[in-house]
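Morning - iron/sulfur cluster inputs below, output right after.
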Amino acid sequence: MNRAEAGGTDRSCSQSGPFAAQPAGTKPAVPLPDSEFVRQELVTLSDLLALLYPGDPADPLLFPTPLWAARDPIDLLVAAILSQATSDRNSKRAMECLKHAFPGWKEAAAAPVRKLAAVIASGGLADTKAPRIQAVLRALNLHEGGELDFLHGLSIEDAFKFLTGLPGVGPKTAACLLLFGFGRPVFPVDTHILRILRRLGLLPVKLDASKAQALLSGLIPPENVLGLHLRLIEHGRRVCRSRNPLCHSCGLAARCRRQL
Ligand code: SF4
């Protein structure tokens, strides 16, 4: 099936564009895109971004993220919490302070929460993140002996369900853990990715990140998940910035609904 047959080639049209028509009387608050159109566009987007940002996405020198530095899944879970709503630099520094201050996660879980907040202050939102980290660590000790290796034996759906059942662990953090810690093809949607896919016309503007993540899951070929995730973030940092995107020099401009 070509793109025209899939209902999405005519990018100049539309009022509805890639968004599927809603049956009369059942229109949801946010119209959802036509999944076949989005699936094909994501494959094309993966190829284009691989040309714009070549190299192995698993190379931390080419695609740096503090998540690569985490040594084990619990480190990674804590790193993902520390990375919420702050820069990579700040969250990396907070993680280093945390590892330096406590010999292990048991000690971090048992410390006074104010002490933990002081240790991770450089990561921002310390008063929120410290109790969140302790709640996760305590829940893991309680239920799973402090280990996460058992996630290897679960289906993606069950592992995702377990992780999002932990206190303070949302869909993006769970997806990051599964992708970076366990190599499972789960696509985390962060603010860069949400912004770019909205601008490209592949997501409705009003769809939030967790609904976007659920919508995109299963539409991206497993072998493209890591590369597409990291390259979109790179593109969001370098070109498709939140303010003043560099559309004149953007390699995706020809496909971008914002530019049409
Ligand atoms: S053309 Fe502009 S808005 Fe569209 S993806 Fe590129 S930088 Fe972003």
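Note: The chain has two domains: 66-182, 188-259.

O.
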